[in-house]
Amino acid sequence: MEDRRHAIRTYRTLQVTLGPLARLVFPTKRIGVKKIPKHGAAILVTNHVSNLDPVLVVFAMRRPIFHLGKHTLFTKRFRAWFFQSLGGQIPVNRERGGNEAAIQAAVAVLRKGFALGIYPEAHRSPDGKLRRGKPGLGRIVYLSGAPCYPVAVDGTFRVWPKGKKFPKLFRRMRIIVGEPRHYPLDPAKAQDHAACQAVTDDLMSDIARLLGQPYDPKTALPPTSGHALPALHPN
Q1: What is the DSSP letter of 129?
Q2: Which domains does the chain carry?
Q3: Residues 188-233: pLDDT tens digits?
């Protein structure tokens, strides 16, 4: 627990010290951010089109957020320390299905009253359009009973799309937080693939409405690759 408190202190220090610079270089309009409570369990569900997405979310929120992150981020000592400092990231092997340990770690974070960030599409969209999210999100929701907040990140694809080495600076972007969805704590439904997928589809539809994008779960393109839980950082 002391390690977690240390991670949160480090996270808050980075938010305070680097936040102003990030907001200067990447000006972002924040809409509805105050809907997310300062305390208590909360799941932030975000679309994923750019390396900038997690950066903007980290510096836009008023509290630390634990994130699911691809396991390869933790293979180097400095990177492992850095990402663990940013709220205690949870490694996920996206090339291997299941990741039950990651699911249980995410649920444990929520049961302790912290916020969890999830990118259900798992990989960056190559064209800026929403992909269908994965059902791992629904499993975490039913195992935790935590409220879910759709978070739409708009403009990052124009600033730093997949395939570009460097982002464009001083371009305006937006983060839009929608109304929360509440699902019951229901371990039985957590074992039901269709029920878990339906939760993910609900939240991806909310994000689509915030972005003004057309979206139909039945026809949405699947994630580009991988079989594991949604991840914080792109491939």
Answers
A1: P
A2: 2-211 (3.40.1130.10)
A3: 999 999 999 999 999 999 999 999 999 999 888 886 654 444 433 3
